[in-house]
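In this section we walk through a basic example: taking a raw amino acid sequence and producing a predicted 3D structure, encoded as discrete structure tokens. The instruction is simple. Fold the sequence below.
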Amino acid sequence: MRKTILFTLFLSLFAVGCQQVKRPQLTIATAANMQFAMKAIVHQFSRETGVQCKVIISSSGKLTAQIKSGAPYDVFVSADMKYPETLYKAGFGFAPPKIYAYGKLVLWSLKKQGALSLQELSDQNIKHIALANPKTAPYGVAAEQVLKATGLFDAVKDKLVFGESIAQTNQFITSGTADIGFTAQSVVLAPEVKGKGSWIVIDPDLYKPIAQGILVLKHGEKHNNEAVKLVDFLFSKKGRTILEIYGYKVADR
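The resulting token sequence is shown next.
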């Protein structure tokens, strides 16, 4: 009798374990500017669908390199369209990437209170200016475009400190390593950051539109249905509302 009970218990635990293994989980390669917004998106998405999500944060360029090297990602949420389009043309995606939102660039400082301005970047009291590396991060490209469009680049180029992504750029700003820096508006609007320091939105005419793209990857073929559901959620009313809360201009599907 005791053996029968133990065997039945073993079968029950084995069945539960199998169910947990079979439960779908998406691995989402996410550009750092979307870190906080994606946290809110996957929370709501998982609540509604039961699909668990693991979010990997880095610069779009580094994530692209990882995907090309075989990283087991199901979905790529980029900070631009260049990287997902490159991956799709190389055969890594099921269908062409789609623009899900347009990002906004801001100037942010925890050291300076009150109104900020681009002109003060050349001030001698500003020693270090943080921005994401333009070689791998689209927001870094936009920041560099702003500095060149305003004629400030040559005056401040020796002050620039580069983060490998917006996430590291934010660390430079919040730790005081940089006096001021360029980041995504989605960062300063996040509950974890909101109210810290001072920031201003950069005139969008000073940089090319930051069209952000999403790509369902072929590596995640066994999770393709769940990946498509995530894309659908991102473009749904609920998904678009979350993006707008974080300062993005949403795109039509």
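Looking at the output, two observations stand out. Residues 2-22 form the longest helix (21 residues). Residues 1-21 have pLDDT under 50 and may be disordered. In the next section we compare this with other chains.
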